[in-house]
Amino acid sequence: MPRDARWLDTLIDPAPLPAWLTPADLAVCSDAFTGSGFHGPLNWYRAIDRTWELMAPWRNAPVMVPAPFMCGAEDRGLLLYRPAVEALPQTVPLLTTSVLLPGCGHWAQQERPDEVNAALLEFLAVVAPTQRARPA
Fold first, then answer.
1. Cβ atoms < 10 Å from Cβ of 72
2. Angle, to 10 degrees, between the axis of helix 48-55 and the axis of helix 39-46?
3. For residues 20 and 107, is the Cβ–Cβ distance under 8 A?
4. Considering just the CA atoms, what is the radius of gyration of the chain in Å?
5. CB atoms < 10 A from the CB of 126, how many?
6. What DSSP string runs through 32-65?
7. Lower Cβ count inside 10 Å, N or C end of the chain?
8. Residue 67: strand, helix, or coil
């Protein structure tokens, strides 16, 4: 990628749409962004430095609740965060499962809904009964 390239320059517009994204799905997303704009999603990225500042007290703190991890093996974000993913057994001591879905990208819940839903239901069946509400 050239140094002056912008992130959007690195993306392709697939033709035809991927099998998991129908024209009706795309219309729903397009309508939502037409109505509300793209400011909300972009503001998460704009505030990333502030988020790091606010979360600083918990830096390197382990996640101490049961949690699964599932990600598309082709997710471009995985390239950036692979060391963090590999460290999950240490940083999330109660990690229940770690799955990379082959041939799947960033939108795993849309690309592979049956596998994601099955994993969530399995996680909830095992973990939810053990997590009882505690009195305040």
1. 22
2. 50
3. yes
4. 18
5. 13
6. HHHHH-SHHHHHHHHTHHHHHHHHGGGTTPPP-S
7. C
8. strand
Distance between CA atoms of 83 and 93, rounded to whole angstroms? 16
Chain segment 87-96, per-residue pLDDT in tens: 999 999 999 9
Positions in the chain whose pLDDT score sits under 70? 1, 130-136
Block residue for tokens 């320059």: 9
**Contact of 111 with 71, CB cutoff 8 Å:** no
Polymer length of the chain: 136
Of 110, 118, 115, the closest CA to residue 24 belongs to: 110
Calpha distance 33→55 (Å, rounded):
29
Task: Supply the pLDDT for residue 1.
Answer: 65
